[in-house]
């Protein structure tokens, strides 16, 4: 797909492919690349397409997810999978309005946007300011299952999965919790 929009600097980027856009963004050191209908990682081979939400909104949701449930050993792609469920036309208005409100909170704290706050402690303070809102509660509640029901991350927590089909936990080391 060729993009024919002018760049922010005013130069024409006719013929620039998505791959070219990614390469330029990566060379510029972007943490998260936001393009026409997608968000991609700078340092990993993943991307998430958006249908109902703006890519910038999805990038904000991914960062929010990491700030709400921070795990250094879990890659951003798992957070992206967890918040992808909010890319829904029925929720889009509420989600876009919530992210706009969060960005207004960030601006009140001296940042251009929530994503522009470089320190986790600053972003968490902003989230605490909106934690009573339906927007925040919707995102937080969706993360509980959206993040922790992903079987690929279970080994990172030492969880082996359900035990019923294996006869339960009694004979499978229920008391070998070495991380407590």
From TrEMBL:
PROSITE patterns: TAT. This is Twin-arginine translocation pathway signal. Keywords: Plasmid.
């Amino acid at each position: 797909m060729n993009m024919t929009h002018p760049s922010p600097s005013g130069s024409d980027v006719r013929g620039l492919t998505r791959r070219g856009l990614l390469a330029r963004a990566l060379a510029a050191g972007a943490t998260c690349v936001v393009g026409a209908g997608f968000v991609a990682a700078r340092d990993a081979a993943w991307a998430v397409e958006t249908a109902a939400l703006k890519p910038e909104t999805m990038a904000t949701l991914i960062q929010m997810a990491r700030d709400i449930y921070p795990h250094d050993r879990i890659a951003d792609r798992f957070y992206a999978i967890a918040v992808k469920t909010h890319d829904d036309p029925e929720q889009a208005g509420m989600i876009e309005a919530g992210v706009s409100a969060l960005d207004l909170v960030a601006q009140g704290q001296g940042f251009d946007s929530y994503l522009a706050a470089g320190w986790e402690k600053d972003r968490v303070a902003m989230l605490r300011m909106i934690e009573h809102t339906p927007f925040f509660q919707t995102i937080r509640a969706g993360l509980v299952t959206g993040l922790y029901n992903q079987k690929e991350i279970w080994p990172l927590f030492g969880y082996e999965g359900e035990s019923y089909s294996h006869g339960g936990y009694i004979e499978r080391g229920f008391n070998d919790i070495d991380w407590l």
